[in-house]
Specification:
Blueprint (H helix, E strand, L loop, with lengths): L2 H25 L12 H26 L6 H21 L8 E2 L2 E2 L3 H21 L4
Antiparallel strand pairs: 1-2
Helix pairs in contact: 1-2, 1-3, 1-4, 2-3, 3-4
Length: about 130
């Protein structure tokens, strides 16, 4: 394993763990999953989002660190899994009635910056990784 491949694998894993762990860290509380004013269906979708982040983190880590040769297909899968949560988080701001923060309501919040930074890191990791595969 080259230093470039290691850099790509570590970067993808870190951004995926931020998605998987961050969803639980920021949503497993009274403002989200335990919010008494949220209907059960809203909690269902919040739980679905948390589980999706965790699942994508597992796919990313598995793809990145599974023994074997680092191929273009494997790089594509790893980069896609590491980025998908962040892409969907940013796209959620385009849906009617959504806000990233409630008090005061704001279309964009700190999550926007985190998602952007993670996507930039994944883009760099992908570019570095592409030099190592055919």
């Amino acid at each position: 394993m080259t230093a470039a491949t290691t850099f790509s694998r570590v970067t993808f894993t870190a951004t995926a763990l931020m998605a998987g762990g961050g969803a639980f860290a920021f949503d497993w509380n009274a403002t989200h999953i335990y919010n008494p004013t949220w209907p059960g269906h809203a909690k269902f979708h919040n739980a679905q989002t948390m589980s999706t982040g965790a699942a994508l983190a597992l796919v990313t880590a598995g793809s990145a660190w599974w023994p074997g040769r680092w191929t273009r297909q494997r790089l594509d899968l790893t980069a896609g899994a590491a980025s998908l949560y962040w892409v969907t988080q940013l796209s959620a701001a385009a849906y009617p009635g959504t806000t990233m923060l409630d008090d005061p309501p704001r279309r964009f919040g700190p999550q926007t910056a985190v998602a952007g930074i993670c996507l930039v890191l994944n883009t760099v990791a992908y570019a570095v990784g592409r030099r190592q595969v055919r």
